[in-house]
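Quick log. Single chain, no ligands specified.
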Amino acid sequence: MAPYSFVTVWYFPAPREQVWQALTATEYSLWWPNVLGTRVLTPPEVTGVGVRLERRVRGRLPYTLRYVTTTTHHDPPNELAYDSVGELAGRGRMVLADEDGGTRVTWYWDVATTGFWMNLLAPLLRPVFAWNHHQVMAAGERGLRDWLRRQMAPVRDGMTG
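-> predicted structure:
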């Protein structure tokens, strides 16, 4: 397995509770263009710790990764941690904090690829795979910023919906 460790920081001019709501909704594809789909693997009555989601993600490179996350820590609206299995195996965590009238989100993603071809090519293509990850994260930040802006527009315009 080829290990990777990423830390990504996002900032949104929106309340932490609203950002948390978007980040803990199961269907990221509403705002994250690289998330091709999400399948909920737990019954609807399971919330927080124990929630299992299968996600399919595709970056700019011509491959799709499929992995399943299981929530291991759930502290709304501050922190969510999860284990990942599948083509990305490891741990992830997102931490939300108030900053400058908005919300800072720090993502920690410590994973290893499990696919034969990715592991075979990792010694040569590790920088390209890391670049692809950063592109996916940047697209997620842009997508969520736009989505939050649209969600807040009625409030800014004095309308209540």
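Residues 2-156 form a domain with the Alpha-D-Glucose-1,6-Bisphosphate; Chain A, domain 4 fold (CATH 3.30.530.20).
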